């Protein structure tokens, strides 16, 4: 079985000129947690996930962890956090998204896809054909198709 046999299409994606607000709107609308980022030729240029956004929200230089692992916030409050979150919404996806993207070819074998998803600890893989985004495969897609004949 090949990627083309199990991939989902059309792919929900964002463009490299979009902001984080557009990403979060798609996350909410489609119940997903990650999106490929494409250029005007539909080539994959980045990938943005809820984890990428969370890491950016969590960047906080004013936290000290003492010897008992209690977190002591030196300065900062909810208002500062809210302001930081609002500012992130207007950031370009390319500022937060991962530019090194794990992806597979449309004719990649399902066993290799399972290996990449497992070893890299990622949830989804964009699928490309001739350098262009054509589909996406999740861990669930691989599991469903791998065991479908056995159930």
Question: Which features characterize this protein?
Answer:
3-stranded mixed beta sheet; about 25% strand; CBS-domain; alpha/beta; 7 helices; about 150 residues; 8 strands
In a nutshell, what does this entry contain?
The protein has helices at residues 3-6, 20-30, 50-57, 78-89, 93-96, 110-120, 139-147, and strands at residues 14-15, 34-38, 44-49, 63-65, 71-73, 104-105, 124-129, 132-138. It has 151 residues and is an alpha/beta fold.
Describe how the helices and strands are arranged.
Layout: H1 3-6, E1 14-15, H2 20-30, E2 34-38, E3 44-49, H3 50-57, E4 63-65, E5 71-73, H4 78-89, H5 93-96, E6 104-105, H6 110-120, E7 124-129, E8 132-138, H7 139-147
Helix pairs in contact: 6-7
Protein model, in words:
The chain has a single domain (3-150), classed as CBS-domain, CATH 3.10.580.10. The protein has helices spanning 3-6, 20-30, 50-57, 78-89, 93-96, 110-120, 139-147; strands spanning 14-15, 34-38, 44-49, 63-65, 71-73, 104-105, 124-129, 132-138. The chain is elongated, with a radius of gyration of 18 Å. It has a three-stranded mixed beta sheet. 39% of the residues lie in helices and 23% in strands. By secondary structure, the protein is α/β, with parallel strands linked by helices. Strand 6 (104-105), helix 6 and strand 7 form a beta-alpha-beta unit.
């Amino acid at each position: 079985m090949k990627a083309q046999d199990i991939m989902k299409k059309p792919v929900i994606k964002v463009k490299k000129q979009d902001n984080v607000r557009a990403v979060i709107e798609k996350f909410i609308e489609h119940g997903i947690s990650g999106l490929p980022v494409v250029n005007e030729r539909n080539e994959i240029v980045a990938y943005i996930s809820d984890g990428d956004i969370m890491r950016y929200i969590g960047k906080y230089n004013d936290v000290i962890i003492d010897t008992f692992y209690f977190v002591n916030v030196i300065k900062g409050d909810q208002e500062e956090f809210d302001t930081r979150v609002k500012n992130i919404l207007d950031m370009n996806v390319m500022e937060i998204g991962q530019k090194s993207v794990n992806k597979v070819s449309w004719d990649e074998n399902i066993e290799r896809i399972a290996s990449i998803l497992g070893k890299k600890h990622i949830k989804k893989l964009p699928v490309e054909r001739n350098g262009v985004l054509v589909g996406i495969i999740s861990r669930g897609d691989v599991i469903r198709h791998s065991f479908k004949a056995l159930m």
